[in-house]
Write a structure and sequence with these properties.
- The chain is an all-alpha fold.
- The protein has one domain.
- Helix content is about 40%, strand content about 0%.
- The protein has five helices and no strands.
- Helix 4 (about 70-75) packs across helix 5 (about 80-85).
- The longest helix is centred in the middle third of the chain and has 8 residues, at about 35-40.
- It is globular, with a radius of gyration of 13 Å.
Length: about 90
């Protein structure tokens, strides 16, 4: 049986700031473009865990920061941290 390693199986899912595996903790989501540009800057293809995204943004994420797409609602069912942020209002 081949050895499986998270870095080789899903390398794009590691947080660019803290190196947490967002694939394992189910923290993948889609923010509105204006919010993502603000925190991702010149490197829009990075992945950020929710805590690091908030750190870069300088505040907690709230419902209005997220795109209304199936990936967010689906992931909120398995990721309590995402569900909490999607429930936050201004």
């Amino acid at each position: 049986m081949p050895i499986v390693g998270p870095r080789s199986d899903h390398p794009r899912f590691f947080c660019a700031d803290c190196d947490v595996d967002t694939y394992v903790n189910q923290q993948y989501y889609m923010l509105k473009n204006r919010v993502w540009r603000r925190i991702a800057g010149e490197n829009p293809d990075i992945m950020l865990c929710l805590s690091c995204a908030e750190r870069r943004l300088g505040r907690g994420l709230k419902r209005d920061d997220f795109q209304r797409v199936p990936v967010n609602t689906g992931q909120a069912r398995v990721c309590p941290e995402l569900a909490q942020r999607l429930a936050r209002q201004a």
